[in-house]
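Two proteins follow. First one:
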Amino acid sequence: MNVKWSSNANEQGISDGEQKYLERRASSVESAVKTLTQEAGLEAPKRNPVIGMSMSGGGYRAMM
């Protein structure tokens, strides 16, 4: 199985605080990704993925 890891994120555009947070989280993320890819029989990515979550807000406002 061939898996492609990619991102369009521009890491140069993040704040200093966010960069420090990502650096602190790197070892936890690396360990989790290694475990998940091994369990799934996948090749590990060349770099740690940065995963974000976005949620919509204002459903009631949008309805109005």
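Second one, unrelated to the first:
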Amino acid sequence: MRPIAEDTIQVVRGGVESAAKDFTARIEPLGFKRTKKMLWARRYLYTADFVTLFRSGSSYGRPINYSVSLEVGFGIRVLNDAFEALSPNGPRYDFSERLRAAHYHFRFNAQTGSTYERCIDDLVRYVVDEGEPWFVRFREPEALLTSAESPLRQSEKEYLHAAVSGQPDETASAQSLKFLGIRTK
């Protein structure tokens, strides 16, 4: 007989993977492709939109129970950006946001399946209701470059301006695509 801790790990991992697969199927019509374990991206000429999921508590070792809590983040990556990491720069939902707690339910029990469908429904609803309007608002490079609410740092704006002006950095673009898990061929 296996120790309970190992069973918990396998059940939680399986639940998270099932959630990621179901989430993928539901956001693919929006143009997002699952490119890494917990990352979904869609590419444009100069930028890429991305959605990240993170299991709360996953960096603290073995799960103590079968409860899975997910955090969601959005970002826009300038492909010409040389920054050596992927950083969500848009709306983000984590469990410290108590004001939205009543609006979205991003938890489920991986063993029993309790609230699983509600969790997937709310993840998709969060992407549609919170993420998509934000992504659309900054879809065009001009909005990213000139809006006072632009999520881009000044250096990112400079990289975007260079790309739009016909000065792409092929090395930075290749690195960005790698971080995003987007294959070019």
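SUMMARY FIELD: The CA atoms of residues 104 and 126 lie 7 Å apart. The radius of gyration is 18 Å.
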